[in-house]
Write a structure and sequence with these properties.
With 338 residues, this protein is mainly alpha-helical. Helix content is 52%, strand content 7%. The chain has 14 helices and 5 strands. The strands form 2 sheets. The chain has a 3-stranded parallel sheet. Strand 4, helix 9 and strand 5 form a beta-alpha-beta unit. The radius of gyration is 21 Å and the shape is globular. The structure holds tryptophan. The site of tryptophan has 13 residues, from strand 1 and helix 8.
Length: 338
């Protein structure tokens, strides 16, 4: 099918860490490359979302490159996807402003991710940008008239808001937006912290040994697996309540190999945690080793990355500017004389 007849996908990730980790990868990013076969795909580095919390500008710039390189290393093909940086496409901020006007304070205030973040540190420690973050995310999606939006479970509520805003705008001002579907793949693995397997793997983990980063040194990553917290038993069995640590390792094993958990359990019947952990540590090292090499090779040629991101932004803008044009017209803004 020519690209314009394929349904469209948009997704984004914040370039807010020096490396993506297994939680990002197996929870969401891994779905991105296979979607290139069946969809017209737009993948975005959400740098404008990344400035809603305190950050360092030089780090953001570097992380944006590192994130782009990792996405390509993970299989996002710039020939088949528009891979772009959010701030290169000014229409995101422009549409977000229009959507701000139709979003209720209470509605935005009910977003659980914002509530969690602001309750942790107090309302004065969070920015207005963090509050309106979901509205910018709605703009990201609606600009591209995306049919589907692959995200992790934690973004479901933001997608619901996006749908509500699209419907509201259409109802008040005439059909303008496509109402998108969240695409939350049930099989995407939820990965937990290796040192605290009741907590989601996250870069704000209490110990760096709790997370495997895609750019980890392979030996270091292997060691993290070998020293992952497990229970005092010795049975390699999936039981999230009683054996959270082992279950998490089984999930990672399954995600890396494509084998079912049941199949892996069978292989390790009668064996102790040690052998299982050693095998998994080798699988992990074999994954992050080549991944890191591919990423570093891409980072060695910044000019090429710049070219890729420029082409991606041009492709994105050609779609986004049309949507914004329609939105401005429907909103009653006077058209500038040609
Ligand atoms: N908020 C998303 C996250 O933190 C990232 C994101 C920004 C996004 N804009 C988006 C995801 C648009 C999907 C669609 O994971």
């Amino acid at each position: 099918m020519p690209p314009e007849q394929k349904p469209r996908v948009l997704s984004g990730i914040q370039p807010s860490a020096d490396s993506f980790h297994f939680g990002n990868y197996f929870g969401a990013l891994r779905q991105w490359p296979p979607m290139q076969d069946d969809f017209d795909t737009f993948y975005m580095l959400a740098d404008m979302h990344a400035i809603t919390v305190e950050y360092d500008p030089a780090a953001l710039r570097e992380r944006t490159y590192v994130s782009a390189a990792q996405l390509i290393a993970a299989g996002v093909d710039p020939e088949r996807s528009a891979l772009f940086v959010q701030s290169h496409v000014p229409e995101h901020a422009q549409l977000a402003w229009v959507l701000n006007g139709i979003t209720g304070m209470g509605e935005a205030g009910r977003m659980t991710q914002f509530k969690d973040k602001s309750s942790k540190n107090g309302a004065d420690s969070v920015s207005v940008g963090l509050f309106t973050y979901p509205i910018l995310m709605a703009a990201d999606v609606l600009l591209y008239r995306a049919d589907q939006v692959p995200v992790g479970e934690d973004q479901r509520q933001h997608l619901e808001l996006t749908r509500d805003l699209a419907q509201r705008f259409n109802h008040r001002f005439g059909e303008t937006f496509l109402v998108p579907e969240a695409f939350i793949v049930k099989e995407t693995a939820k990965i937990y912290d290796l040192q605290d397997p009741t907590a989601k793997m996250s870069k704000s983990a209490s110990s760096p040994n709790g997370l495997i980063e895609l750019l980890d040194d392979p030996k270091k990553a292997a060691k993290k697996i070998r020293s992952a917290v497990t229970d005092s038993g010795d049975e390699v069995r999936f039981d999230e309540k009683e054996k959270a640590g082992v279950s998490n390792l089984l999930t990672i094993y399954s995600a890396l190999t494509g084998r079912t958990v049941a199949d892996i359990e069978r292989e390790y019947v009668g064996q102790q945690y040690g052998a299982f952990k050693v095998a998994l540590s080798e699988l992990v090292a074999d994954f992050v080793g080549p991944f890191g090499e591919r990423t570093r090779a891409l980072l060695d040629d910044r000019a090429e990355l710049d070219r890729i991101l420029k082409a991606g932004a041009e492709q994105a803008r050609s779609v986004a500017s049309q949507t914004l044009d329609l939105v401005y017209d429907r909103s009653g803004f006077v058209r500038q004389a040609l």
